[in-house]
Design a protein that fits this description.
With about 180 residues, the protein is of the alpha+beta class. The chain has two helices and 13 strands. It has two domains: about 40 residues; about 120 residues, Lipoxygenase-1, CATH 2.60.60.60. The protein is globular, with a radius of gyration of 26 Å.
Length: about 180
């Protein structure tokens, strides 16, 4: 019979289909093995950045955030989380001068950023503030700017100034009291 191949005990009527199925299974198994290796080796029990001790330096921090050209249709958000050295303080931030009770993290939305300048201040000295920014312009040919001016204990830090286009932008920033 044309197209019929004999593989020992098995007879395959379509050699090309057999090879395609075999390759799909091989690729699947290779991917599963790689996934297993990544899952078990990706996380280690060793801490590279141990938790700070209560004697760790803590400082007041302030972040002034502005956007220019941000549209309602654009997708842009900013998240911040803070921690004291002891990790027990539950109220850490003021947002535009208003204390955010029981908040160790904040999400600043597109709407808040479009409303004008956003100022995030600590209510107590902290050890760490970590920011995550992400988004993109939803309109072809349109871009907007994101600017963050950090200050630690009144000392200006390097300003973050980014033009965001239709290409997805993601960035993380950490500020430690040192």
């Amino acid at each position: 019979m044309p197209g019929r191949q004999d593989y020992g005990k098995f007879t395959i009527n379509n050699h090309k289909q057999f090879k395609t199925t075999l390759m799909k299974k091989a690729i699947l198994w290779v991917n599963l093995i790689l996934l297993g290796v990544l899952v078990f080796s990706g996380c280690s029990s060793k801490k590279n950045d141990p938790a700070p001790t209560p004697t760790t330096t803590q400082k007041n921090m302030k972040f002034t955030i502005t956007t220019t050209g941000l549209l309602a249709s654009d997708d842009f958000d900013l998240a911040v989380v803070g921690s004291t050295a002891q990790g027990t303080t539950t109220t850490i931030f003021k947002l535009n001068g208003v204390v955010q009770s029981n908040q160790t993290s904040l999400v600043i939305t597109n709407e808040q950023l479009r409303a004008g300048q956003v100022v995030i201040e600590t209510t107590t000295p902290i050890y760490l503030a970590a920011f995550s920014a992400s988004g993109f312009s939803a309109t072809n040919g349109h871009s907007f700017t994101f600017k963050m001016e950090p200050s630690i204990d009144g000392v200006a830090q390097a300003t973050v100034n980014k033009t965001v286009t239709t290409t997805v932008y993601t960035a993380d920033f950490q500020y430690k009291a040192q």
